[in-house]
Amino acid sequence: MGRAFFALLLLIFLTTQAFSQIKSVKIQDFTYRRFEGSSLALQLKASYFEKQLDESFSAKNLELVSPKKGINIKANLGFYDKKKELFHFQGAVELKTEKHGDVYTEELFYSKKDGVLRAPGRVFIKKEGIIVEGSELYYSLTTGEFRLKGNVKAKFSL
Question: Which end of the chain, N or C, is less packed with Cβ atoms under 10 Å?
Fold first, then answer.
């Protein structure tokens, strides 16, 4: 009994030591789904996903879907900073919203803490035959406030 107990402790110690050496997790064709009850709350998909020890991550060809918040975001690259609770999307970013149409930009930030989406650069919004262009987007998912700033232009198609 003493030997078996010692062997078990040794195995636990060695396993713990081995896993403590893992600095990151890398996954090809990654999909993560979180449910609240029986409803999908969040889905993340990526062709390449790398999670760091501090719970931050980076991903290629990232898609984030939140049916509860009414958004779907696609980007060439995505990053999540756990300490700041901030998502950063880069490259051919598409934000599809249920209420405000489809948003196209090169860079988008989402603060989990504030529930706010921001696009600091050139933005195009397409909805029902209208294309609106501006230089900065602010969208609060908690209040529903949706603003486009800076030299805003609109094109209508009949």
Answer: C
